[in-house]
Amino acid sequence: MTILVTGATGRVGRAVVTALLRAGRPVRALTRAPVTADLPEGVAVYQGDLEDPASLAAALEGADLLYLFPVPSTAREVVAMAERAGVRRAVVLSGALADEESADDEDGYGAVERAVQASGLDWTIVRPGEFAGNWLDYAPDVRARREVRRPFGNAVSRPTHEADVADVVAASLLGEGHSGQVYTFGGPEALTVAEQVRRIGAAIGAEVRFVELTPEQARMEWYDLDQGVDHDVIDWLLDMYGASVDGPETVPPSDTVERVTGSPPRDFAQWAADHADDFR
Ligand SMILES: NC(=O)c1ccc[n+]([C@@H]2O[C@H](COP(=O)([O-])OP(=O)(O)OC[C@H]3O[C@@H](n4cnc5c(N)ncnc54)[C@H](OP(=O)(O)O)[C@@H]3O)[C@@H](O)[C@H]2O)c1
Predict the structure, then answer these.
(1) Which of 101, 121, 141, 209 has its CA 20 to 30 A from that of 193?
(2) Which residues form a coiled coil (predicted)?
(3) Is there a single domain that holds both residue 103 and residue 214?
(4) pLDDT of residue 226
C-alpha cells in the first residue's frame, strides 16, 4: 500500500512522513525542490507542483492513499487525477476556520474540502486550529533579543502541535472508520499569548520578554516587514486576534485527537521543548 504525502517538506507533512515510516509503510513524498528537501532515508522523493497538476502524474501513478496539502486553485483537478490514477483514499489538511468561510469562497479551505467530497474517493478532512508552529516566526527575535513583540497579550488560543495533526492524518490514512469524517481540534490547553511566551522561555531556560504592541503599532511593524504578506491579511489577522481577547474560543475543547489516535494531544510545553533549539 503506497502512500503519497504532498506538502512533505512542511511542518505537518514532515511529521506525517515520520508517522507513516514509524508505521512501516512505504512513503512517497512530493516536493517542488527534491535537491533541498532533506527527507528521511527510505522515502521515495517525487518532484511536482500542486499548482501544476500534470506534474503530479508520476507521483500519483500506483499510489493507494494520499495526504493532500491544501492548494485551493487546483484541488479539483488534483483530486480527479488521483482518482483516475487509482488512489482510494485522501486525507485533506484543512483548518478550523473553514466553517467561517463563505460557501462559494474558491480560495479557502472549503474549495479543497468540496473537491474531495464531490469525488469518488474515500475522504477524511482534518481541521486543526492555530498551529503552535506559528511561533517559529518569532524564533529569530527570541534568539537575537529574547523578545517577542505582538499585540493582544490576552488573546487566547489552543496551540496545536504539528505532530498531533500528523498523527490524526496518519490514523485516518491507515485505519478504518474515518471515511466521511471531519475532524476539528485544537491543542489541549487554552492559553493567552503572554502565557505561551512564558512557556517558550521555560523551555529554553531563559526569560523571554513579551512586549505588547497596540494594534496600530503591530500593523505598522508588520506592514514594514515586507515579507510578501498582503496588508488585507494583516488586517484580518489583527481582527481575529483582537476577537479572541475575552471572546468565544474558535476551537472548543474536544477529545478528537485521543479518540482518533489513541493518545492525548501534546501540550504547549511539549511543543516548546520539542522546538527549544529553534529558540535558543
Ligand atoms: N498556520 C496555522 O495556524 C494553520 C492552522 C490550520 C490549518 N493550516 C493549514 O496548514 C497549512 C500549512 O501546513 P504546514 O505547516 O505543514 O506547511 P508549511 O510548513 O507551510 O509547508 C508547506 C509545504 O507545502 C509544500 N507546498 C506549498 N505549495 C506547494 C505547491 N504548489 N506544490 C507542491 N508543494 C507545495 C511546500 O513544499 P516544497 O517547497 O518542498 O514544495 C512546503 O514544504 C496552511 O497552508 C494552512 O492551509 C494552518
Answers:
(1) 101
(2) none
(3) no
(4) 65
Ligand 1, atom nearest to 33 Cα: 40
Ligand 1 contact via 70 beta carbon (within 6 Å): yes
Decide: 9 in ligand 1 pocket, CB within 6 A.
yes
Residue 61: give its domain's CATH number: 3.40.50.720
How many domains in the chain? 2
Does residue 157 share a domain with residue 273? yes
141 with 271, same domain: the answer is yes
3-state DSSP assignment of residue 86 = coil
To the nearest 10 degrees (0 to 180), the angle between helices 75-85 and 109-117 is 30
Return the bridge partners of 198, or none: none
Q: pLDDT, tens digit, for every residue of 35-83?
A: 999 999 999 999 999 999 999 999 999 999 999 999 999 999 999 999 9
Mapped onto helix, strand or coil, the DSSP state of residue 264 is coil
* 242: containing domain: 129-161+187-250+266-280
List, for residues 226-279, the tens digit of each pLDDT value. 667 789 999 998 998 898 897 777 799 999 999 999 999 999 999 999 999 999
Cell numbers 522546538 correspond to 275
Sign (positive/negative) of CA torsion 87, 93, 98, 101?
negative
For residue 173, being part of any structural domain is answered with no
Three cell numbers written together for 186: 485544537
User: Is 177 inside any structural domain?
Assistant: no
Q: Is residue 258 part of a domain?
A: no
Beta carbons within 10 angstroms of residue 239's beta carbon: 11
